[in-house]
Amino acid sequence: MSGVLVVMEARGGAWNRMSFETLAAGQQLAAGLGVAARAAVVGSGVAGLARELAGYKLEKVYAVSHALLGEYTADGFAAAVEALVRRDGADVVLFPHTYQVRDFAPKVATRFGRVLVSDATGFRAEGGLVFVRQLFQGKLNADVRVSGDGPQFASIQAGAFRAESAEAGQAAVEEFAPELAAGTIRQKPEAPFRESARAVDLTAAEIIVSVGRGIKEKENIGVVEELAKALGAEMAASRPICDNGWLPMERQVGSSGQTVAPKVYVAVGISGAIQHLVGMKGSKTIVAINKDANAPIFEVADYGIVGDLFEVVPALVAEVRKVRG
Ligand SMILES: Cc1cc2nc3c(=O)[nH]c(=O)nc-3n(C[C@H](O)[C@H](O)[C@H](O)COP(=O)(O)OP(=O)(O)OC[C@H]3O[C@@H](n4cnc5c(N)ncnc54)[C@H](O)[C@@H]3O)c2cc1C
User: Fold this and answer.
1) Would you say the CB of residue 151 lies under 6 angstroms from ligand 1?
2) 201-210: per-residue pLDDT in tens?
3) Per-residue pLDDT at 196
4) Ligand 1 within 6 A of CB of 262
5) From CA 3, how far away is CA 249, in angstroms rounded?
6) Does residue 289 register a pLDDT over 90?
7) How far is CA 89 from the centre of its chain?
8) Which of 14, 20, 33, 293 is the most buried (most CB within 10 A)?
9) CATH class of 4-184
10) Which CATH class for the 202-324 domain?
11) How far is the CA of 159 from the centre of ligand 1 (A)?
12) Average pLDDT for 103-131
């Protein structure tokens, strides 16, 4: 059976949100190639998650379940996904580019004699399938064409597609219990890594004002906090600000911080390094304030103000206060 198969990720009964970005990517790719999209959830007792997934526009949903998949192991997941791909016969298999996927998906691809095109940001059907991935911290986009027959394997970068654009529909659920032997699983899982409880949930904020190294000193952060207050926004920051302890780590946006998609994201004195962009480029409207007209942040900004933040921000605060009181 041809088609695009999306392997979703869930842990402890909860979806990894990037899975739905990959689902949207899978649906778009399938539509572009004129083939069907299917999706799978892998674990133990995943019937409920599979039913949720069945509410999307898919040809079929697989509930891949086995007692040995209750806790993640690279050997267990690689064997289960390999068996699934052989059964399904998809031409293209997509994964979200999570830490877990980085661990086991290359092994699956290798078992088919293929490679995993990792961290893809897009694709085109152009005399075959072309994946796009970024090089040199986003300075170059590379087209990657995999030679030979399918299946082709790729993981999708966080924030490259919008989870909300995954199309709803109705799909049948097929249960699949792969044959797994305890003796073939060499890893012993330990208690999963838990991030410290977050006092702020930036993912729920409608407006975010984010500050970068352009602020120069901790004492100046208040200038940008005034704007956040005036707009009723949450404060966020680029990594150097949190590394310096000027704002708490939980306010960091980017590849090693939170991924956010608010209605409005105001980036103040942030250059727009790829590690920052992946955490915020899904925002509906991006406003950038930077004194360097060539700063990469302007490439993703809907509105750009080229100027000194120490002049621009207080002027903006005054204007906002005129309107909002
Ligand atoms: C593995 C890895 C993970 C990373 N994860 C993250 C992450 O999660 N999040 C993250 O943000 N970064 C992350 N980074 C770091 C990232 O590569 C950048 O170094 C960082 O995002 C830069 O932060 P910045 O834009 O605040 O600072 P800079 O790049 O120094 O930019 C400062 C900007 O301020 C502007 N500016 C200066 N003065 C003014 C002024 N007076 N008025 C207006 N503009 C001014 C400058 O023109 C410049 O564009 C990561 C890096 C690595 C290697």
Assistant:
1) no
2) 787 789 999 9
3) 58
4) no
5) 42
6) yes
7) 26
8) 20
9) alpha beta
10) alpha beta
11) 18
12) 94
